Amino acid sequence: MRSHVIKKSVETLPHRALLMSAGIKKQDLDADKPFIGIANSYNNIIPGHTHLQSLAQEVKRGIRDAGGIPLEWGVPGVCDGIAMFVEMRLSLPSREHIADNIEIMVMSHAMDGWVGITNCDKITPGMLMAAARLDLPAIILTGGPMKANIVEGRKRHPIEGFAMVGQIKAGIISQEQAEASIDQMVCGPGSCVGLYTANTMAVVTETLG
Questions:
Q1: DSSP helix/strand/coil, 41
Q2: CATH T-level assignment (fold) for domain 33-147+194-208
């Protein structure tokens, strides 16, 4: 296993002491369990990622049940819908940043495989790029789409807001009318409703798997 370089032989004594200081049990290291990374893009900023921490807990439980040692770290997640004010100048290059992040963490800590917990437009592609670079056992788990809010038989969701901005500027509706309906567009966690990159890339990811 790749992880032998930091958990086998006398030279790894300080490495093991550091890992144990992070909460990893000595008996698990002695049992030569594989290191399985978890690249988790959870944050509480964007709805596509607010629920990913609960998925991570299940992933960690599954890794332990299968005889591995889960090693989790955070991956940045930018919301294209919120970050429109800077166009794609930050969101688009974040794919390479995410791939770099995962490559650095997996290689630096001699992981034997990894799981990516992801959602949304640029994070899922970034994780797929990392999987291709590393060529190690990997599973990419997406968080799924948000469920649209149903109001009087009509589906409402945050992406409607973009069309409303255009309607306000065209004089079709007033700003007051749009503001009055914003509560109806609020949904729960998940990627944006619609066939945008977040959901199409999730389909591609499952198809590749």
A1: coil
A2: Rossmann fold (3.40.50)
